[in-house]
TrEMBL record:
Residues 257-285 form the 4Fe-4S ferredoxin-type domain. The gene is ccoG. Keywords: 4Fe-4S, Electron transport, Iron, Iron-sulfur, Membrane, Metal-binding, Transmembrane, Transmembrane helix, Transport. This is Cytochrome c oxidase accessory protein CcoG. GO terms for molecular function: 4 iron, 4 sulfur cluster binding; metal ion binding. The chain crosses the membrane at residues 38-58, 85-106, 159-176, 340-360. Pfam families: Fer4_18, Fer4_5, FixG_C. Coiled coil: none annotated. GO terms for cellular component: plasma membrane. InterPro entries: 4Fe4S_Fe-S-bd, 4Fe4S_Fe_S_CS, Cyt_c_oxidase_cbb3_FixG, Electron_Trans/Redox, FixG_C, Ig-like_fold.
Length: 469
C-alpha cells in the first residue's frame, strides 16, 4: 500500500522541464590548407572592395555613391534616379537567381566563403587568436581567474574589435555620404546626428555579430539555412564524411593496420569538430548548420597525411556520388540537370534584359505636371492657353541642352522658350505654356504629347489639354 502511495505522489508532483538548451561557447581551432587559403582570399577580396570602393574617385565625385539627399545613385559613369527603381528590382532578381543556381550546384559555399557574417567572423577570430592564442590557450585563459595578463589580453581584443566595427560602420555610411567629407566631419567632431547613429549602429552590429553571435546568426537568425533544402537535391555538392571508409572509428598506433584491428580510417581525433565554426560533427551526416566552409576537410586531410592514409575521408561530394561510389568526372556530368538549366535560363534572360535596358536607356527623364492653379484660360488673340510644368532630369555627367515641342491638336504652339539647359546630373522644372486656336477642338479634355529631345534621344510624355465650355 505504501508503494502505491509513493507512486501516486510521484505522478502528482510537478516536474519543470527546460525547453531551451544552454549554449556552450564554441572555440574554433585554427586550420591551414587549401580551403583555408581560399577563405582568406575571399576575405581580402570582399573587404578590399567594401573598404576601398568609397575612396575611389570618378572624375570630380565618388565612383559609387548613393546620395539620398539629392536622390541620385552614382555607379561609376551611371547616374540613376528614384524612377530607375526597375534596375534595382532587376539586380535583386539576378542576385536571387545567382544564389539559387549556386546553391543547387555547390550547396552553401556562399555561406562558407563570402557571406559577410562568415567574413567578419574570420576577421574577429583572427584578432582573438592574436591576443589570446589558439583554441587550447583561449580555453585555459577563460577558465583562469582574472589577472593582469588576462586583463590586457581581453581589453586589447575588445578595443581591436570595436575599432574594426567602427571603421566598418564609417565605411558603410561613406556609401551614402561622400566619404571624404564624412572623414573631415569625424576629424572636426562635427558629425550630424544621423551619420553618428548609423556609424554606431552598423559598428555595433558588426562587433556583436562577428565577436559574439557568430554561429548563432547562421544557426538561428539566417533564413537561408532554413529554406536551402528546397534547392538541394542528391546531386548538390556538400561536405561529406565517407562513413563506408571511416567506420568503425577509433584510435590506433600509426604503425598499426586498421583492417587487422577492425577499424576504418577515422582515428576519432575529433579535430573536425574542433575546427568547425558552428560546432557540429560532420560525421553525423548532412546538417543544416553546416556552412560548407571545408575547415573539416583541411584538418582531416592533414591528419590523413600524418597517419599515412589517403586524403578525402571528408571531402566535397554529393549524396548520390557517395551512395554509388562516383568519381569526380561522374559528379561533373550531373551538374547540368533540369533545375540547374531552369535557373540558368531565367538568370540569362533577366541579365540580358537588364543589360539591354541599360544600353538602350535614354540619358534623361521627363515628368509633366499640369498647373492646377490655372486649368485653362483665354488669352490675347482669342486663343486658349494651358500651363504645364515639365521636369527634365539630366542623367549624364555634363550640362546638356534640350528642345521642347508639343503635338496632338491642330495649331498647337509653345509660347515659352523651347531651348533649356540642364546642368550635369541635375534636374530642372520648366514652365511651359501651350496655346491652340479657339476653334481648334471641341470643349473638354484632349490628349496631347509634350516632347523633350536631345542629340541622343527623344522622350515624349502624354498629358491633356483642357478646352473650356
Amino acid at each position: 500500500m505504501a508503494s502505491k502511495d509513493k507512486v501516486a505522489a510521484a505522478a502528482n508532483q510537478e516536474v519543470e522541464v527546460s525547453l531551451y538548451e544552454a549554449q556552450k561557447k564554441i572555440y574554433p581551432r585554427s586550420v591551414t590548407g587549401v580551403f583555408a587559403k581560399w577563405r582568406w582570399f575571399f576575405v581580402f577580396a570582399t573587404q578590399l572592395f567594401f573598404y576601398g570602393m568609397p575612396w575611389l574617385q570618378w572624375g570630380d565625385r565618388q565612383a559609387m555613391l548613393f546620395d539620398l539627399d539629392t536622390r541620385r545613385f552614382y555607379i561609376f559613369g551611371l547616374v540613376l534616379y528614384p524612377q530607375d527603381v526597375i534596375y534595382l528590382a532587376g539586380i535583386l532578381i539576378i542576385s536571387a537567381m545567382l544564389l539559387f543556381l549556386f546553391t543547387a550546384v555547390a550547396g552553401r559555399q556562399w555561406c562558407g566563403y563570402t557571406c559577410p557574417q562568415t567574413v567578419y567572423t574570420e576577421i574577429y577570430l583572427w584578432i582573438e587568436r592574436k591576443f589570446e592564442g589558439d583554441r587550447s590557450a583561449r580555453l585555459r585563459l577563460d577558465a583562469s581567474p582574472m589577472s593582469l595578463n588576462k586583463f590586457w589580453r581581453k581589453t586589447g581584443k575588445q578595443l581591436a574589435w570595436i575599432a574594426v566595427g567602427l571603421w566598418t560602420g564609417f565605411t558603410f555610411v561613406g556609401y551614402f555620404t561622400p566619404i571624404r567629407e564624412l572623414a573631415m566631419h569625424v576629424v572636426g567632431m562635427s558629425l550630424g546626428p544621423w551619420e553618428t547613429f548609423w556609424i554606431c549602429f552598423y559598428g555595433f552590429a558588426t562587433y556583436g555579430n562577428g565577436g559574439y553571435m557568430r554561429e548563432q546568426v547562421c544557426k538561428y537568425m539566417c533564413p537561408y539555412a532554413r529554406f536551402q533544402s528546397a534547392m538541394f537535391d542528391k546531386d548538390t555538392l556538400i561536405v561529406t564524411y565517407d562513413a563506408k571508409r571511416g567506420e568503425p572509428r577509433g584510435a590506433r598506433s600509426k604503425k598499426a593496420d586498421p583492417r587487422a584491428l577492425g577499424l576504418g580510417d577515422c582515428v576519432n581525433c575529433t579535430l573536425c569538430v574542433q575546427v568547425c565554426p558552428t560546432g557540429i560533427d560532420i560525421r553525423n551526416g548532412l546538417q543544416y548548420e553546416c556552412i560548407s566552409c571545408a575547415a573539416c576537410i583541411d584538418v582531416c586531410d592533414d591528419v590523413m597525411d600524418k597517419v599515412g592514409y589517403p586524403r578525402g575521408l571528408i571531402r566535397y561530394s554529393t549524396e548520390r556520388a557517395m551512395e554509388e561510389g562516383w568519381n569526380r568526372a561522374q559528379i561533373l556530368q550531373r551538374v547540368l540537370r533540369p533545375r540547374v538549366l531552369i535557373y540558368s535560363a531565367i538568370l540569362a534572360v533577366v541579365t540580358i534584359a537588364l543589360l539591354a535596358s541599360l544600353v538602350m536607356r535614354t540619358p534623361f527623364k521627363v515628368d509633366i505636371v499640369r498647373d492646377r492653379a490655372t486649368l485653362a484660360r483665354i488669352v490675347e488673340g482669342g486663343k486658349i492657353e494651358n500651363v504645364y510644368r515639365v521636369q527634365i532630369m539630366n542623367a549624364t555627367e555634363h550640362a546638356r541642352q534640350y528642345t521642347l515641342s508639343a503635338e496632338g491638336l491642330p495649331g498647337i504652339e509653345m509660347v515659352t522658350d523651347k531651348q533649356v539647359t540642364v546642368d550635369a546630373a541635375e534636374s530642372l522644372w520648366v514652365p511651359v505654356r501651350l496655346r491652340v486656336p479657339y476653334d481648334a477642338a471641341s470643349p473638354g479634355s484632349h490628349e496631347i504629347r509634350i516632347g523633350v529631345s536631345a542629340p541622343d534621344g527623344v522622350v515624349q510624355e502624354k498629358s491633356v489639354f483642357i478646352v473650356p465650355r
